[in-house]
Design goal:
- The chain has helices at 34-45, 55-63, 72-89, 123-135, 155-168, 187-195, 209-215, 226-235; strands at residues 3-5, 9-13, 19-23, 28-32, 67-69, 93-98, 141-146, 173-180, 200-203.
- The chain is an alpha/beta fold.
- The strands form three sheets. Strands 6-7-8-9 form a four-stranded parallel β-sheet, covered by helices on one side. Strands 2-3-4 form a three-stranded antiparallel β-sheet.
- It folds into two domains: 3-72, no CATH class; 90-235, TIM Barrel (Alpha-Beta Barrel).
- It binds iron/sulfur cluster.
- Iron/sulfur cluster (SF4) binds next to loops.
Length: 236
């Protein structure tokens, strides 16, 4: 079998000096030796070097989708697009993108939310939301995406909505995703999402630590966020 490195991998050195490889397709992190880390950099320039891997390493990398066969990444993307389109145009699934707050604890210079009032979703809007969902009785399942601002700043609202949907609506949450800056994965929030698992979590990293920290700064302190996000991602 002829393998190549997946487009979905990212290699980096952690703040603790660990050599890591991350695959966003499988959401897996692997710790590498320095030699293997450097060898993977060489493979990025010359994929024929993959032949020098032993079978057990190939098997591990294939299992985690770090190594893929030709077209596998493209086929994966097509499958995902097909799934998204199926959800978008199906009446079976009611897709909701919910913004529990427009507030954010970051101060990214490119933020499209700049100038918007950092309000939380009101109880009145939550009532309207529940009414809206009940009106779509034809739907068999819900697809919910949390979006912001930073949605986890309004965790209590997320919890309230999920609890009310589970207790008051006869449509289960089938797909559950969040777009977050990744800062607030506290134990309380992690516990909640263990009970209400997320299918995908989208966290933005703006390149390596030096670049990311100059862009995705915390609003109050002006400090970067890279180390906190990396730690949270590993914990999660
Ligand atoms: S994390 Fe997102 S919402 Fe917050 S400031 Fe940055 S771009 Fe805006």
């Amino acid at each position: 079998m002829k393998y190549q490195l997946s487009k979905y991998i990212y290699t980096f050195v952690s703040s603790k000096g660990e050599f890591l490889i991350y695959c966003s397709r499988t959401n897996s992190f692997l710790k590498l030796t320095k030699e293997l880390f450097e060898f993977i950099s060489e493979i990025k320039k010359d994929s024929s070097l993959i032949n020098e891997f032993d079978e057990s390493l190939i098997s591990l990398f294939v299992k985690n989708k770090i190594l893929v066969v030709a077209n596998e990444d493209d086929d994966y993307l097509l499958e995902r697009q097909f799934e998204e389109d199926t959800i978008t145009y199906s009446q079976k699934t009611l897709g909701l993108t919910l913004v529990p707050t427009l507030s954010c604890n970051f101060d990214c210079p490119y933020c499209f939310e700049e100038g918007k009032r950092g309000e939380n979703m009101s109880d009145e809007t939550i009532e309207h939301l529940l009414t809206f969902i009940r009106k779509h009785e034809i739907a068999k399942e819900l697809s919910i995406t949390w979006y912001g601002g930073e949605p986890l700043l309004a965790f209590n609202i997320i919890k309230k909505i999920v609890d009310r949907i589970e207790n008051e609506v006869n449509i289960p949450i089938k797909y559950h995703t969040i777009v977050t800056n990744g800062f607030y994965f506290t134990d309380k929030i992690l516990d909640f999402f263990k009970k209400h698992p997320l299918d995908t979590i989208q966290i933005t990293l703006d390149g390596k630590k030096e670049r990311h920290d100059t862009i995705r700064r915390q609003k109050v302190t002006g400090e970067g966020s890279y180390d906190i996000l990396m730690n949270n991602m590993i914990t999660f």
